[in-house]
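Figure 2 data, in text form.
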Amino acid sequence: MRAHLKIADAGGLSATEDELRQLEAQYCSHGDTVHYTDHPKFFESCEGSFVYDASNTPFLDLQMWYSAVNFGYRNPRLNEAVHRQLDTLPQVASQYLHREKVELAALIAQDAEQKFGYKGRVHFNVGGSQAVEDSLKLVRNYTGGKSLMFAFEGGYHGRTLGATSITSSYRYRRRYGHFGERAQFIEFPYHFRGPKGMSKEEYGHYCVQKFARLFESEYNGVWDPKAGKSEYAAFYIEPIQGTGGYVIPPMNFFVELKKVLDEHGILLVVDEIQMGVYRTGKLWSIEHFGVSPDVLVFGKALTNGLNPLSGIWAREEMINPTIFPPGSTHSTFASNPMGTAVALETMKMVSENDFGATVMEKGARFLDGLKELQKRHATVGDVDGLGLALRMEICKSDGFTPDKATLDWMSDEGMKGDLQFEGRNYGLVLDVGGYHKNVITLAPNLMISHSEIDLALELLDQLLTRAEQR
């Protein structure tokens, strides 16, 4: 029987959850990621580190909308910025200026100049994938139309046509083909699954040397030594792999890689969409690794998930109006007042105290707890973290063989909302990532309390115990 929509009236009557599920089954596309699970959860409200279902059961969220809500649900200060902007200039056509856009661009560009040593400019868009597309246009324009890129195995840059072409998972583009760009995928120093007998730093050096070998001869396919030119325009990187499983490279890796790129005139484009805005304890995660990008792509947490806003920062010679004139790329909602106002307040908020130090301290506490869980549970093969970007790799009892099935079960079990702590039921929201989809990628609220970290570790312990006893 066809379900009919009931619009809530003044008395609050509306469709029941069962009726909503019928409507969703009939009218919603299944092409997004909701239906990775068979019975997706409905949530009713949220606050801080928690989302709540209709029975008011708290679900501790350890992925915070894929690191988009870095500063907690319903953050009072950022929500107030939304209300202020809503009451003044909530919208204006993008061919006009507003104060928030200019001030935000200046803050980001001035910060980048101080950190990276280059004057640059900022170009805004709406979503992360759209900003990646803008960066591809920028790179192709600057390099005379080169459409070939390097990117990493395990890298993720979005699911638009251009972004999927530099994302290593063939699954995302199998049915759509390629559209101009194409990447050659390079080994990332994923030490836990790398060659045995190498330290993390030795493996990083090995991966750089393996990449550098491509330039030894014209017959390796990427370099013309007579002309001193490569047909590859740029190397797209995530400093810490996101969807790939929060893989953290050795600290020597990007310094050595950048040297190879500079020697061969290849741009470095840094994707900070998931790891930016203090997820790792710094505004941009690339700051940990001692190199300066040519282009930096950002999004997600800059607005705490309250209004879509993304963008790119690029060096002046790549993005100045002479080479990248008006109309080079455009989105109707780019630099929208609501998004830029919240982002501006975010930048002010994190600059008022040593926010990064607090993130690092909480991250260290969380990582210590994960290491204790690793000691108690043979199924935890690897844990690692930088700031509050943390990983826990779920394996078979040998501690190494990937166990996707168990992690899938744990994710569903956490959504039942029947984990116990101090006499109350809790749920646990986890994100699944990794090359083998067996990694819990932990991106908690950056304002998470110590007691909430302890709660997270207790609930993870219960889930692991249930998984081992089932």
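Caption note: The chain has two domains: 31-61+354-469, 81-351.
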